[in-house]
Write a structure and sequence with these properties.
The protein is built from 13 helices and 20 strands. The protein is of the alpha/beta class and 440 residues long. It folds into two domains: 3-200 and 318-435, Aminopeptidase, CATH 3.40.630.10; 202-315, Alpha-Beta Plaits, CATH 3.30.70.
Length: 440
């Protein structure tokens, strides 16, 4: 079958199944679960993949899934990836009534996308027209929340990394994958639309414990050591160095005090903080990490307090595959029209994603699609155009997969040849990541 005939047929199949895809999207929307707890979501995704005739490996990084479908040849394996987790958003009008959770980042639409591709290419047998394999991967825990729960999982030996894709890299889920195509819902775009090509900061997550000495705050302040003042000194030190970072490094340092003392009449002796330290490249991340630690230690030293700093998680900076992005954009322009496609390759986002960890090893594309209103992670964010959110992204992903794997998978082979990984091997990546998060 000629490529264009195949592509037209697959797009028609997705269109014919639009009501089923919208039903899948609605079902996933109604079962939001937070990271490493996505049991209901995982079981539902597994059910649909099995309906497509796939053998599904589950329980990967606790709740993750993977299924592989074979094409005519097996030199290239393209993974379609979606994220399982949701957010805790008890004030959202459509949050889960018992859990207080909501898909405030639209991850359920990502899952609908990969299931749409499975229905169109695998269930129909049309994957036999492609010269490469397809893997369908559902990953847990992209959102870094419920940190105490994740620390417990680590202490119990159930995981090492606190983000799903990192843990799945460690477990070898991506070992046979040559490239990854995922996607993400955007905010403020109700109509069919896509952004392609932006980059992201990396991030190091830190916890800080400052120990002072309790004393009566009015009768004997001289006998205490104020841990809260140590924290304030540290924060002032950090603010003093903010202006010294290069603009191109896109440094972000943000923090909260999770415990500031026990009583205003007692000199605080136990203060806890959480930090996010972000930058656009690894050298900048390392430098900012060291300077933030120094600023906090000097703040503690100034008042005589003890301090313990631990890095408990991280995401790598993320750079997308330009070559895969060009293929995706051509399909988007054909399917949606040029006015509905935006090249974002010159745009850098201050936020972070653990997609960067995958992209540091193999080519990855992470475009954004429409169908939503409001800002992500906000109480006015929601699906308003189910066709744009659930059907269109499946069409774009399927068309891109065909381009990559048709004709001896030459496009995919070219993509592999031009890719320059950030790390020479998974082992090098794991060594670096383990060193960062074990730093105290």
């Amino acid at each position: 079958m000629e490529k264009q005939v195949l592509k037209t047929k697959v797009l028609e199949i997705i269109e014919q199944n639009k009501d089923y895809l919208i039903e899948i999207g609605r079902n996933l929307y109604r079962m939001p679960e937070t990271g490493f707890k996505e049991y209901e979501t995982s079981a539902y995704v597994k059910q649909i993949l099995e309906e497509c005739g796939l053998i599904v490996s589950d329980g990967l990084a606790i709740t993750g899934l993977k299924a592989k479908a074979s094409g005519k040849k097996h030199e290239v394996n393209l993974a379609l990836m979606g994220e399982l987790d949701a957010l805790i958003m008890p004030n959202h009008p459509n949050c889960h009534p018992q859990r207080g959770t909501f898909h405030g980042c639209g991850h359920h639409a990502q899952l609908t996308t990969i299931l749409g591709v499975a229905l169109a290419l695998v269930k129909t047998g049309l994957i036999s027209e492609l010269d490469g394999d397809l893997s369908f991967i559902a990953v847990p825990a992209e959102e870094v929340i419920e940190l105490d729960f994740r620390r417990e999982l680590r202490e119990q030996g159930k995981l090492f990394f606190i983000s799903g894709k990192q843990e799945m890299i460690r477990l070898g889920v991506f070992d046979d994958v040559d490239m990854v195509l995922c996607s993400h819902a955007m905010g403020h775009k109700a109509e069919p639309y896509c952004w392609v090509g932006q980059s992201w900061n990396g991030i190091i997550f830190k916890t800080v414990e400052i120990t002072g000495k309790a004393s009566h705050a009015a009768l004997a302040p001289d006998q205490g050591i104020n841990a809260l003042e140590a924290a304030l000194c540290g924060m002032n030190n950090i603010n003093a160095i903010r202006g010294s970072f290069r603009d191109d490094d896109h440094v972000r340092i943000h923090y909260i005090i999770t415990k500031g003392g026990d009583n205003c009449n007692i000199v605080p002796d136990d203060v806890r903080m959480e930090f996010g330290v972000r930058a656009a490249n690894i050298p900048a991340m390392n430098q900012v990490d060291e300077r933030v630690d120094a600023a906090l230690r000097l703040g503690a030293k100034a008042v005589g307090a003890e301090i313990k700093i631990a890095n408990f998680g991280m995401d790598m900076p993320c750079r997308q595959s330009r070559m895969m992005g060009d293929i995706y954009m051509r399909n988007a322009e054909e399917i949606l029209g040029e006015d509905k496609v935006e090249d974002m390759s010159g745009v850098h986002r201050g936020s972070s994603t653990d997609c960067g960890d995958v992209a540091s090893l193999i080519p990855l594309l992470h475009p954004y699609f429409g169908g939503f209103v409001g800002a992500v992670h906000s109480n006015d964010y929601d699906v308003v155009n189910e066709y744009a959110a659930y059907v269109v992204p499946a069409k774009l992903a399927a068309a891109t997969a065909i381009d990559l794997l048709y004709g001896n998978a030459q496009q995919a082979k070219n993509l592999k040849a031009e890719f320059k990984p950030l790390f020479s091997s998974k082992e090098e990546y794991l060594e670096y990541a383990a060193k960062v998060i074990s730093k105290i």
